[in-house]
Amino acid sequence: MTATKENRTLAILNAAVAGKYGVMAAIAYNIEHLTALVRAAEAKRSPLIIQLFPSTLKQVPLLAHAAAHAVKSATVPLSLHIDHAQNIDHIREIIRTLPVDSVMVDMSHYDEAENLEKTKVLTKECHERGIAVEAESGRIEGGEDGIADTGDLEALFTSPEDVDNFIAADIDILAPSIGNVHGDYGPTGPKEGQLHYGRLEAIDKQVNKRVLIALHGTNNFPAEVMQRCIRSGAVKLNVNKLLLEVGNEVLRKNAAGMPLVKLIDEQIRVIQEETERWMDICGSSGKA
């Protein structure tokens, strides 16, 4: 890993590897989400990675600065990560202008050779600014908000050669494809056999702490699935709907009749509670 040793994201994840627990990397779309996530981290004395999508940077430009302030003022370890950054010009703008700790340089919508080539160039540029880099090896099916949908492209499982190639590109965090998907699995989570835990364990053994492992596609995960992924080597756990859906449900049920201030308070409350619950599940509570 060549990003600066003082990098917040890497410090959080390296501590989690040593402590054998997982750290959630939680998406925020607005200030209510950010507030709930930070309050949960403080309440549970848990490390946390705050994630923003590139689309959110354009919709709510000040949110990145609010998140960066939260990172610097918190009494627990936090970091700011940009998830699924796919536009090369936008990546360069992000690392030049925003106080971020890490970026997912997601070139997975290109073929393998081009993915690797572009990732290597951008990783060097990020590292020059002390910013850690995550990349996706193989291809994870589906799409999320503001992300190129790969649903019409063949899912590609991460191979041992992929792992070696991305390590050679000097990335810090690897997001493997092991049967996980961007999007929903259904109310009971992944089907039996859908997630290849053995492949994840083999990747973890192969990387041998040279890079850290991120798990994407956690919507609808039961607690036991998340915990098994952590035992198999995943340390950065990307979460979106898993935490935020309870807040969406508050909006659906109460938007027409609840006063705005109360509606905001209730969203923050339920998202904070759900985040705290998952911090316990992932083992990060009390680790700050």
Strand order in space, largest sheet: 1-2-3-4-5-7-9-10
- What is the SS-derived class? alpha/beta
Radius of gyration: 18 Å
Proportion in β-strands: 5-15%
Subunit organisation of the chains: single chain
Number of separate structural domains: 1
Low-confidence stretches: 149-154
Helix content: 40-55%
Count of individual beta strands: 10
Task: Output the CATH class name.
Answer: Alpha Beta
- DSSP helical segment count: 11
Question: How far from one another are the termini?
Answer: 23 Å
Enzyme class: lyase
Keywords: Glycolysis, Lyase, Metal-binding, Zinc
Pfam family, one: F_bP_aldolase
GO biological process, one term: glycolytic process
Give a brief description.
By secondary structure, this protein is α/β, with parallel strands linked by helices. The protein contains eleven helices and ten strands. The chain is 47% helix and 15% strand.
